Amino acid sequence: MTKTEIRITKLTAAQGQVLTNGEAYGKQVYLGVIDSPDNWREISQAEYEKIVEETDYV
Amino acid sequence: MAKVMTDSVHYESIADSLRQTTGSADKYMPSQMAAGIMGAFDAGKQSQWNMLWDAIMNGGHLTQEKMGLFCGNHWNDANFYPKYDIVPITGTYLFKDCRITDLKGRLEEMGRKLDVSLVTNFYAAFQGSTITRLPALDMSGATNLTQVFFSCGELAHIEKLIVNKDATFSSTFTYCRSLEDVTIEGTIGSNVDFQYCTKLTHESLMSIIDALEEKTSGSWVLTLGSANLAKLTDAEKAIATQKGWTLV
After folding, report:
1. C-alpha separations of B67 from B11, B72, B121, B122, B150 in Å
2. B100-129, pLDDT tens digit by residue?
3. Mutate to test the interface with B, among A3, A30, A39 (most CBs of B within 10 A)
Protein backbone atom coordinates (compact mmCIF):
# COMPACT_ATOMS: atom_id res chain seq x y z
CA MET A 1 0.00 0.00 0.00
CA THR A 2 1.28 3.44 -0.82
CA LYS A 3 0.09 6.66 0.67
CA THR A 4 0.42 9.77 -1.45
CA GLU A 5 -0.45 13.26 -0.34
CA ILE A 6 -0.89 15.76 -3.10
CA ARG A 7 -1.02 19.37 -2.04
CA ILE A 8 -1.86 21.97 -4.61
CA THR A 9 -3.09 25.47 -3.97
CA LYS A 10 -5.77 26.27 -6.49
CA LEU A 11 -7.21 29.73 -7.03
CA THR A 12 -10.53 30.01 -8.83
CA ALA A 13 -11.81 33.30 -10.18
CA ALA A 14 -15.25 34.47 -9.14
CA GLN A 15 -18.05 34.50 -11.72
CA GLY A 16 -17.29 37.04 -14.45
CA GLN A 17 -13.73 37.52 -13.21
CA VAL A 18 -10.30 36.46 -14.49
CA LEU A 19 -7.18 35.92 -12.41
CA THR A 20 -3.92 37.61 -13.41
CA ASN A 21 -0.44 38.19 -12.08
CA GLY A 22 0.00 40.97 -14.63
CA GLU A 23 1.35 38.66 -17.32
CA ALA A 24 -0.71 35.48 -17.36
CA TYR A 25 -4.50 35.17 -17.28
CA GLY A 26 -6.83 32.34 -16.37
CA LYS A 27 -9.99 31.28 -14.58
CA GLN A 28 -8.07 28.69 -12.58
CA VAL A 29 -4.55 28.95 -11.24
CA TYR A 30 -2.56 26.12 -9.68
CA LEU A 31 0.14 27.83 -7.66
CA GLY A 32 3.74 26.72 -7.86
CA VAL A 33 5.42 26.10 -4.53
CA ILE A 34 7.36 29.37 -4.79
CA ASP A 35 4.34 31.42 -5.88
CA SER A 36 1.87 33.15 -3.55
CA PRO A 37 -1.85 34.01 -3.81
CA ASP A 38 -0.76 37.60 -3.10
CA ASN A 39 0.77 37.74 -6.57
CA TRP A 40 -2.65 37.19 -8.18
CA ARG A 41 -5.69 39.43 -8.42
CA GLU A 42 -9.03 39.41 -10.14
CA ILE A 43 -10.02 41.59 -13.05
CA SER A 44 -13.34 41.64 -14.86
CA GLN A 45 -13.92 39.54 -17.99
CA ALA A 46 -14.46 42.79 -19.93
CA GLU A 47 -11.13 44.16 -18.73
CA TYR A 48 -9.43 40.92 -19.70
CA GLU A 49 -10.94 40.96 -23.19
CA LYS A 50 -9.78 44.55 -23.65
CA ILE A 51 -6.24 43.56 -22.69
CA VAL A 52 -6.27 40.65 -25.15
CA GLU A 53 -7.61 42.90 -27.89
CA GLU A 54 -4.89 45.45 -27.29
CA THR A 55 -2.10 42.91 -27.02
CA ASP A 56 0.59 43.80 -29.48
CA TYR A 57 2.46 40.59 -30.14
CA VAL A 58 6.18 41.04 -30.54
CA MET B 1 -6.24 8.36 -88.73
CA ALA B 2 -4.62 10.45 -91.47
CA LYS B 3 -1.41 9.11 -93.03
CA VAL B 4 1.67 11.36 -92.97
CA MET B 5 4.33 10.78 -95.59
CA THR B 6 7.88 11.15 -94.40
CA ASP B 7 11.37 10.04 -95.36
CA SER B 8 14.74 9.31 -93.78
CA VAL B 9 15.80 12.98 -93.98
CA HIS B 10 13.20 13.90 -91.39
CA TYR B 11 14.35 11.15 -89.04
CA GLU B 12 18.01 12.11 -89.49
CA SER B 13 17.11 15.71 -88.70
CA ILE B 14 15.33 14.73 -85.49
CA ALA B 15 18.19 12.42 -84.50
CA ASP B 16 20.75 15.21 -85.13
CA SER B 17 18.71 17.57 -82.95
CA LEU B 18 18.57 15.01 -80.17
CA ARG B 19 22.33 14.42 -80.36
CA GLN B 20 22.94 18.17 -80.30
CA THR B 21 20.63 18.66 -77.32
CA THR B 22 21.99 15.79 -75.26
CA GLY B 23 25.60 16.15 -76.38
CA SER B 24 25.74 12.46 -77.22
CA ALA B 25 26.57 10.44 -80.33
CA ASP B 26 23.65 8.04 -79.85
CA LYS B 27 21.96 6.53 -82.86
CA TYR B 28 18.16 6.37 -82.94
CA MET B 29 15.75 4.00 -84.61
CA PRO B 30 12.51 5.80 -85.57
CA SER B 31 10.75 3.74 -82.90
CA GLN B 32 13.17 5.06 -80.24
CA MET B 33 12.77 8.72 -81.04
CA ALA B 34 9.73 9.43 -78.89
CA ALA B 35 11.56 8.09 -75.84
CA GLY B 36 14.67 10.03 -76.89
CA ILE B 37 12.71 13.28 -77.10
CA MET B 38 11.16 12.69 -73.67
CA GLY B 39 14.59 11.81 -72.27
CA ALA B 40 16.03 15.06 -73.61
CA PHE B 41 13.06 16.95 -72.16
CA ASP B 42 13.55 15.33 -68.74
CA ALA B 43 17.29 15.99 -68.87
CA GLY B 44 16.49 19.62 -69.57
CA LYS B 45 14.13 19.78 -66.63
CA GLN B 46 16.75 18.14 -64.38
CA SER B 47 19.36 20.62 -65.55
CA GLN B 48 17.03 23.54 -64.84
CA TRP B 49 16.17 22.08 -61.41
CA ASN B 50 19.89 21.74 -60.61
CA MET B 51 20.63 25.31 -61.64
CA LEU B 52 17.66 26.70 -59.72
CA TRP B 53 18.39 24.87 -56.48
CA ASP B 54 22.13 25.54 -56.69
CA ALA B 55 21.25 29.22 -56.89
CA ILE B 56 18.65 29.11 -54.09
CA MET B 57 20.81 27.09 -51.74
CA ASN B 58 24.18 28.48 -52.79
CA GLY B 59 25.37 25.13 -54.06
CA GLY B 60 24.53 23.53 -50.72
CA HIS B 61 26.78 25.88 -48.75
CA LEU B 62 24.49 28.05 -46.66
CA THR B 63 27.37 29.48 -44.71
CA GLN B 64 26.36 33.11 -45.00
CA GLU B 65 23.42 34.67 -43.21
CA LYS B 66 20.44 34.28 -45.50
CA MET B 67 17.24 35.43 -43.85
CA GLY B 68 13.87 34.05 -44.89
CA LEU B 69 15.22 31.40 -47.24
CA PHE B 70 11.82 29.79 -47.86
CA CYS B 71 9.70 32.72 -46.67
CA GLY B 72 6.60 33.72 -48.59
CA ASN B 73 3.45 32.24 -50.05
CA HIS B 74 5.18 31.49 -53.36
CA TRP B 75 6.81 28.48 -51.69
CA ASN B 76 4.46 25.53 -51.85
CA ASP B 77 4.24 21.77 -52.37
CA ALA B 78 4.57 22.20 -56.13
CA ASN B 79 7.99 23.85 -56.01
CA PHE B 80 9.63 22.87 -52.73
CA TYR B 81 11.99 20.07 -53.76
CA PRO B 82 15.26 20.91 -51.95
CA LYS B 83 18.39 19.55 -53.59
CA TYR B 84 20.52 19.80 -50.44
CA ASP B 85 20.13 19.42 -46.69
CA ILE B 86 18.87 22.68 -45.24
CA VAL B 87 21.42 23.90 -42.69
CA PRO B 88 20.66 27.57 -42.06
CA ILE B 89 22.66 29.94 -39.90
CA THR B 90 19.72 32.21 -39.16
CA GLY B 91 16.20 31.01 -38.50
CA THR B 92 14.51 34.39 -38.79
CA TYR B 93 11.52 34.07 -41.16
CA LEU B 94 12.95 30.76 -42.43
CA PHE B 95 9.58 29.34 -43.59
CA LYS B 96 7.36 32.30 -42.65
CA ASP B 97 4.05 32.41 -44.56
CA CYS B 98 5.07 29.55 -46.86
CA ARG B 99 2.33 27.32 -48.33
CA ILE B 100 4.22 24.05 -47.95
CA THR B 101 2.11 21.48 -46.06
CA ASP B 102 3.86 18.28 -44.96
CA LEU B 103 7.40 19.60 -44.56
CA LYS B 104 8.58 16.47 -42.75
CA GLY B 105 7.18 14.21 -45.48
CA ARG B 106 8.69 16.24 -48.31
CA LEU B 107 12.13 16.26 -46.68
CA GLU B 108 11.93 12.49 -46.22
CA GLU B 109 10.78 12.03 -49.83
CA MET B 110 13.79 14.04 -51.02
CA GLY B 111 16.19 12.37 -48.58
CA ARG B 112 17.03 15.77 -47.07
CA LYS B 113 17.43 17.01 -43.51
CA LEU B 114 16.48 20.26 -41.84
CA ASP B 115 19.38 20.86 -39.46
CA VAL B 116 18.78 24.00 -37.42
CA SER B 117 21.36 23.29 -34.73
CA LEU B 118 23.49 26.30 -35.79
CA VAL B 119 20.62 28.76 -35.46
CA THR B 120 20.57 31.13 -32.47
CA ASN B 121 17.57 33.25 -33.47
CA PHE B 122 14.36 31.62 -34.66
CA TYR B 123 12.25 34.77 -34.73
CA ALA B 124 8.99 33.95 -36.59
CA ALA B 125 10.67 31.03 -38.36
CA PHE B 126 7.43 29.24 -39.29
CA GLN B 127 4.97 32.05 -38.54
CA GLY B 128 1.76 32.01 -40.56
CA SER B 129 2.77 28.99 -42.64
CA THR B 130 0.47 26.15 -43.68
CA ILE B 131 2.90 23.47 -42.51
CA THR B 132 1.12 20.51 -40.94
CA ARG B 133 4.05 18.33 -39.91
CA LEU B 134 7.56 19.20 -38.82
CA PRO B 135 10.59 16.98 -38.30
CA ALA B 136 12.72 17.06 -35.15
CA LEU B 137 14.16 20.54 -34.65
CA ASP B 138 17.34 20.92 -32.64
CA MET B 139 16.85 24.39 -31.21
CA SER B 140 19.37 23.87 -28.43
CA GLY B 141 21.56 26.66 -29.76
CA ALA B 142 18.75 29.21 -29.79
CA THR B 143 17.82 31.71 -27.11
CA ASN B 144 15.14 33.59 -29.06
CA LEU B 145 12.09 31.48 -29.85
CA THR B 146 9.78 34.46 -30.20
CA GLN B 147 6.77 33.72 -32.44
CA VAL B 148 8.45 30.69 -33.99
CA PHE B 149 5.13 28.94 -34.64
CA PHE B 150 2.88 31.99 -34.26
CA SER B 151 -0.37 31.52 -36.16
CA CYS B 152 0.61 28.13 -37.60
CA GLY B 153 -3.07 27.18 -37.64
CA GLU B 154 -2.61 23.86 -39.43
CA LEU B 155 0.47 22.61 -37.62
CA ALA B 156 -0.54 19.34 -35.95
CA HIS B 157 2.67 17.38 -35.41
CA ILE B 158 6.15 18.38 -34.32
CA GLU B 159 8.32 15.29 -34.04
CA LYS B 160 10.59 16.80 -31.41
CA LEU B 161 11.80 20.17 -30.15
CA ILE B 162 15.18 20.25 -28.48
CA VAL B 163 15.24 23.45 -26.43
CA ASN B 164 17.77 25.47 -24.48
CA LYS B 165 16.93 26.39 -20.87
CA ASP B 166 17.88 30.02 -21.57
CA ALA B 167 15.45 30.31 -24.48
CA THR B 168 12.53 32.74 -24.29
CA PHE B 169 9.13 31.63 -25.58
CA SER B 170 7.29 34.85 -26.32
CA SER B 171 4.12 34.01 -28.30
CA THR B 172 5.90 30.93 -29.62
CA PHE B 173 2.75 28.77 -29.90
CA THR B 174 0.08 31.48 -30.12
CA TYR B 175 -2.85 30.47 -32.36
CA CYS B 176 -1.48 26.94 -32.95
CA ARG B 177 -5.02 25.61 -32.67
CA SER B 178 -4.32 22.28 -34.44
CA LEU B 179 -1.20 21.24 -32.55
CA GLU B 180 -1.63 17.71 -31.18
CA ASP B 181 1.80 16.19 -30.79
CA VAL B 182 5.01 17.76 -29.60
CA THR B 183 7.83 16.12 -27.71
CA ILE B 184 10.11 18.43 -25.78
CA GLU B 185 13.71 17.46 -25.17
CA GLY B 186 16.01 19.66 -23.10
CA THR B 187 14.83 22.15 -20.49
CA ILE B 188 12.15 24.81 -20.49
CA GLY B 189 13.47 27.63 -18.32
CA SER B 190 11.10 30.51 -19.01
CA ASN B 191 7.37 31.17 -19.19
CA VAL B 192 5.62 29.46 -22.06
CA ASP B 193 2.03 29.60 -23.27
CA PHE B 194 0.17 26.69 -24.88
CA GLN B 195 -3.37 27.94 -24.18
CA TYR B 196 -4.33 28.00 -27.87
CA CYS B 197 -3.11 24.42 -28.38
CA THR B 198 -6.26 22.83 -27.02
CA LYS B 199 -5.73 19.56 -28.95
CA LEU B 200 -2.45 18.65 -27.26
CA THR B 201 -2.28 15.00 -26.30
CA HIS B 202 -1.74 13.92 -22.71
CA GLU B 203 1.66 12.56 -23.73
CA SER B 204 2.63 15.94 -25.16
CA LEU B 205 1.48 17.74 -22.01
CA MET B 206 3.55 15.41 -19.84
CA SER B 207 6.55 15.94 -22.09
CA ILE B 208 6.21 19.70 -21.52
CA ILE B 209 5.84 19.29 -17.75
CA ASP B 210 8.78 16.90 -17.56
CA ALA B 211 10.96 19.46 -19.37
CA LEU B 212 10.27 22.27 -16.87
CA GLU B 213 13.34 23.48 -15.02
CA GLU B 214 13.38 23.17 -11.22
CA LYS B 215 12.90 26.71 -9.87
CA THR B 216 13.71 27.95 -6.38
CA SER B 217 12.88 31.64 -6.73
CA GLY B 218 11.02 33.99 -9.02
CA SER B 219 7.65 33.76 -10.71
CA TRP B 220 7.22 31.13 -13.38
CA VAL B 221 4.06 30.30 -15.30
CA LEU B 222 3.20 27.48 -17.67
CA THR B 223 -0.01 28.52 -19.39
CA LEU B 224 -1.94 25.50 -20.64
CA GLY B 225 -5.51 26.79 -20.63
CA SER B 226 -8.54 25.09 -19.14
CA ALA B 227 -8.92 22.48 -21.92
CA ASN B 228 -5.41 21.13 -21.34
CA LEU B 229 -5.54 21.42 -17.54
CA ALA B 230 -8.62 19.20 -17.62
CA LYS B 231 -6.51 16.42 -19.20
CA LEU B 232 -4.16 16.29 -16.20
CA THR B 233 -4.66 14.64 -12.83
CA ASP B 234 -3.84 16.53 -9.66
CA ALA B 235 -0.75 14.34 -9.26
CA GLU B 236 0.42 15.35 -12.75
CA LYS B 237 -0.26 19.03 -12.07
CA ALA B 238 1.72 18.67 -8.84
CA ILE B 239 4.83 17.63 -10.80
CA ALA B 240 4.86 21.14 -12.26
CA THR B 241 3.89 23.01 -9.11
CA GLN B 242 6.51 21.18 -7.05
CA LYS B 243 9.12 22.36 -9.55
CA GLY B 244 8.07 25.94 -8.77
CA TRP B 245 5.84 26.48 -11.79
CA THR B 246 2.33 27.92 -11.58
CA LEU B 247 -0.14 26.35 -13.98
CA VAL B 248 -2.75 28.52 -15.60
Report:
1. 51, 12, 11, 10, 18
2. 999 999 999 999 999 999 999 999 999 999
3. A30
